[in-house]
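Re: folding output
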Amino acid sequence: MRTRYALILAVIGAVLGAPPASAKPPKGPALPAGIREVVIYPAPALVVIDDAGATVDLATARGHWAFVHFWASWCIPCRREMPHIAQLQKRMQGQDLRFFVVNVADSDDAIFEFLGGIATDLSSLRDPDGSNTEHWQPRGLPSTFLVDPQGMVHYRALGGRDWEDSAYLEFLTRLVAPAGNRK
């Protein structure tokens, strides 16, 4: 029965153009709490607006890992998590990880007020009409997706977390390390 199921999945994957299971990055001993591997799929388009009103496109991150995070000002777990993301972004500077922190349909004033009181060093991108968020379909807020250098989603984290915790830092550092340097 398992063999038949695996064969069916392989055929469906081949028809849909899904990458083989071997396309996953090497696993470490365990994933940190709340990080889940997903069936690898192409990242939806993400074209959002930065603080200056310029367009930012996830496609510019090709060749690098991307941390795509969706949040809202009314979200209590987002309020607790944002300072950790700001610190994570600082700690990961110089590593192969690009950050796309996307607000889901709040007004400019709500975003600036929220970040001004919570995470002053963090810049947020805006999805004013929510269309990008709709394509990504987060199952709640906050939601984070980790996208590989080829534009494929490998991991998802639902809900807030302390991204500065050593388990998350070690996981992300190992994930974005060049293939020859992974442990």
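--- second protein (sequence, then structure) ---
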Amino acid sequence: MLNPEMIGKIVQIASVLEVSGYPKPGNVHRTRDYDDMVFEDFLISGIVIGDHLRHLSKRTIENKDDLSKIQIGKAVYDAVTETNEWIENNTNLGIVMMTFPIGAAAAISNNMEELRDNIGKIMAVSTVEDAIYLYDAINIASAGGMGDQDEYDVTSDKAKEELIKNNQTLWDVLKISAPWDDLASELTSKMPIIFEFSYPIYSELRVNNSLNKSGVLTFLEILQKVPDTLISRKYNDEVASEVSVKTRDLLKYKDLENFEEYLHEFDNYLYDNHLNPGTTADLTAATIMVYYINNEFEKTN
């Protein structure tokens, strides 16, 4: 079991390493700012969330016999609220949503099997209050993903009343969103993309590659396999699939000495066409976090 201080450090490291990936096509990175957010915004927001995951991890240890009491929704809300005090735009809602259940589970787990199982348990016993806090966090971050839907529309003034009336928990509302949001899908299915696909890839890459190359290639491997659902929501599934096909073609050149030139070209293409694989970035951050958690498991076992 990892102590909360270590878990807080790991989420900060994972967040900073993800955004530092260079050049990570279609997203903010160390030499690519966007009009509404810049590289430093993500560094700041990655640091800010550490304390909130530490608090959540402590509550998880204290309530390990009743995980419905850990207030995971409040932890997400608190992290997004403080981020909003430092940064004007949504930089980390997706990362917080993905990494906080992982971190909470790490506080009561001894190995990777227990980690994944406890993520499932934490999400399964989430509460209506957790769902309400998530809705508030989404509105603070002005984030897309669960809004503009017929059922429990996050933008509706009556959404929270409907959640309470129908006893809809955090898990319930994420399950509704799962068909069009890979983060919601991961959170309600014990994270198969992370544990079965991207984590093994990142771990293998780290053996003989730099931190930067490992992160960028993992990002690309996820994107070529899983069409980005943020792109799907902004445009359509066909556009997201086209980006995945282009990523698959790009990876054919990954062993060439001039691969970075191809990366820059693809990055420019995505940027010029306003195609932002933001969901893939969140999955990459969660992948890096799982890697470092497992490193700590191996040290103590």
